[in-house]
Design goal:
- By secondary structure, this protein is an alpha/beta fold.
- The chain contains 15 helices and 23 strands.
- The termini are far apart.
Length: 515
């Protein structure tokens, strides 16, 4: 077991009988005796010891404890709740490098990206601390004399959070830090591919909470396991909000179940994101942004660039430059400073990539570069691939699907109205980008007639969002919004109040009811 970052984070002593804890409930660790799975790093297949799923009883207990903690936490003033989040940020900053190294070890992303992910946790802490004094309501004019109307926001309840492997820390932090300042407790089901990153997060929160004896211990609960564990959270009526990040398929399974119990969903799902390069674009900027968006994180971001529309006047030159850049991308051990592309998460991801490439070729596409497994100058037992560029004459069925791998489909276009229609033709609507120096094109892209995505950028790539803006997409991308702006309202309930400060009782709309 590769232990440097694990030791720094205090994880090594937690291994019992060759397995990690399956749950963190009220700051107590729980272990399962059976169904132990071997947890391995995607970098080289090295064993990180075993882990197992929490039992249904442990999941139910975690929700019960979170519900109890919520009832205490909701009455603590929001600025005091913000002080806890500030203390969490101190712990994160002190352990930033070690946590980033663990993220790289479990997810395979390059260290620079992992450091950026931990920075997202720090950034959302900053945002949440300020927010703790800005949970504003409204005052509205009343039609009745000696009356006023007001709107308040109150804590919602225990929040269920389900996250994916590609951002094992940041997405949980977006939800959990806002939920905490909003007065909620949380129950987290992390990806089974990155259980140690989740455990490390819980320990950092525990250390921060040690200096707050006046707050309930059950604010942050965590249960490990496969899909069945997430399904238990989805079905639990005690969770008024279920925030889930994952595939479109997962979202379509979760949404009706939560709706059936009249709960709320916050879904952040697949992307199939596109960018458009116009004739006036700064091509150097567009190329750099497109390569990072398409090949960064080995194409395993929900905001990764999948489709690139290039105007016919610059198509040949742009594609030639892209091929040259792709051929020179350093693929290898993500812990090395000169590596830009680490491994795919596992064998299944590699198989999916190969199936997509075969389908693209069968549908008339031409693989211009990449797609093959890299076997030299990389650690053994990892699924390293050369990012692929595929030329397509049109958007066939495979282009409409999102493949979670570094495949970039390039398509020519001649008419701006037509390319907007092609851009919007897929079922997903997460992130989009336009590269242009033409003001009219830029404003059209950002208008109601332009991109139909939740994120629309000008002269910036599809990935790498800042926490200040609300993050999320439309259509099959789920419709949820996390992180900045007013996403905090997801974690609260709105209450409208009427206050009569007079001695009479006039009724609204002029209704008369004298007794």
């Amino acid at each position: 077991m590769e232990s440097a970052c694990l030791e720094t984070l205090g994880l090594i002593p937690l291994v019992q009988d060759g397995r990690w804890p399956c749950a963190f409930i009220n700051q107590q660790l729980h272990y399962a005796a059976d169904n132990v799975c071997d947890h391995r790093s995607p970098i080289n297949g090295s064993s990180l010891c075993g882990y197992s799923s929490a039992s249904p009883q442990l999941v139910a207990d975690a929700v019960t404890k979170a519900e109890q903690a919520f009832k205490e936490w909701r009455i603590i003033p929001a600025p005091r709740r913000g002080e806890l989040v500030r203390a969490i940020a101190v712990q994160v900053q002190q352990h930033k490098t070690a946590l980033a190294e663990l993220i790289t070890l479990e997810s395979g992303k390059i260290l620079s990206e992992s450091l950026g992910e931990v920075q997202e946790w720090l950034d959302i802490c900053d945002f949440a601390v300020g927010l703790s004094r800005q949970l504003y309501g409204l005052t509205m004019a009343s039609e009745r004399p000696w009356h006023r109307l007001q709107e308040q926001w109150h804590p919602l309840g225990p929040i269920g959070i389900i996250t994916a492997f590609n951002f094992p820390v940041a997405v949980w932090a977006w939800n959990a830090m806002l939920a905490l300042v909003c007065g909620d407790s949380t129950i987290w089901k992390p990806s089974e591919k990155t259980p140690l990153s989740a455990l490390a997060c819980c320990l950092l929160v525990q250390r921060a909470m040690a200096d707050f004896p006046d707050i309930p211990v059950g604010l942050v609960q965590m249960v490990q396991g496969q899909q069945t564990i997430g399904e238990l959270l989805v079905a639990d009526r005690r969770l008024p909000l279920l925030s889930a990040t994952g595939s479109v398929r997962m979202g379509k399974a979760i949404a009706p179940q939560v709706a059936a119990r009249l709960g709320r969903c916050l879904l952040e799902l697949g992307g199939n994101n596109a960018a458009i390069i116009t004739p006036s674009a700064n091509l150097e900027l567009a190329l750099r942004a497109s390569v990072f968006a398409a090949a960064g994180t080995c194409g395993q971001r929900c905001t990764s660039l999948r489709r690139l529309f290039i105007h016919v006047d610059v198509y040949d030159s742009v594609v030639a430059r892209l091929q040259a850049i792709y051929a020179g991308l350093r693929v290898g051990d993500p812990r090395l400073s000169d590596v830009l592309v680490g491994p795919l998460i596992d064998a299944h991801a590699f198989a999916q990539m190969q199936q997509a490439l075969a389908a693209a070729q069968a549908q008339g596409g031409q693989v211009l570069v990449g797609g093959e497994r890299v076997m030299t100058d990389v650690p053994a037992n990892g699924f390293y691939v050369r990012p692929a560029i595929v030329a397509m004459a049109q958007q066939t069925a495979i282009v409409h699907d999102e493949t979670f791998a570094p495949i970039l489909y390039v398509l020519p276009y001649a008419d701006f109205d037509a390319v907007i229609a092609m851009h919007n033709a897929v079922s997903q609507g997460l992130s989009s980008a336009l590269f242009t120096q033409n003001l009219l094109e830029a404003e059209r892209f950002l208008s109601a007639q332009g991109s139909d995505c939740g994120i629309a950028n000008i002269n910036a790539g599809t990935s790498g969002a800042e926490i200040g803006g609300a993050f999320g997409g439309e259509k099959d991308s789920g419709g949820g919004r996390e992180s900045g702006s007013d996403a905090w309202k997801n974690y609260m309930r709105r209450v409208t109040n009427t206050i009569n400060y007079g001695n009479t009782l006039p009724l609204a709309q002029g209704v008369k009811f004298d007794i």
